[in-house]
Amino acid sequence: MQDEIKRLYKSRNDRVICGVCGGFAEYLKMDPTIVRLIMVLIALTGGGIIAYLIAAIVMPERPM
């Protein structure tokens, strides 16, 4: 039996802007609202917006 590899994708269902926070929430099995609040706090301290933009470019879409 092969173990399925856990991969990080942008969410197709739970997206507000690009699906990055929804994808992290699916990967971490958390509520997406909590991930979004953490992202806002990181963005307020600096660097979070750049990290989000990089993730939006680098993370692939979840395959159908």
List the defining traits of the structure above.
mainly alpha, single chain, 64 residues, 3 helices
Describe the structure.
With 64 residues, the chain is mostly helical. It is built from three helices and no strands. The chain has helices at 20-28, 32-45, 48-58. It is globular and about 40 Å long. The model has no long low-confidence stretch (mean pLDDT 85).
The gyration radius over C-alpha positions equals 12 Å
- Approximate shape: globular
- As residue ranges, the low-confidence spans are none
Mean pLDDT: 85
Question: What is the N-to-C succession of helices and strands?
Answer: HHH
Largest sheet: number of strands, sense, barrel closure: none
The share of residues in helices is: 40-55%
- How many strand elements? 0
Number of helices: 3
Q: What is the percentage of strand-forming residues?
A: under 5%
What structural category characterises the helix and strand content?
mainly alpha
Nutshell version of this structure?
The chain is mainly alpha-helical and 64 residues long. It is built from 3 helices and no strands.
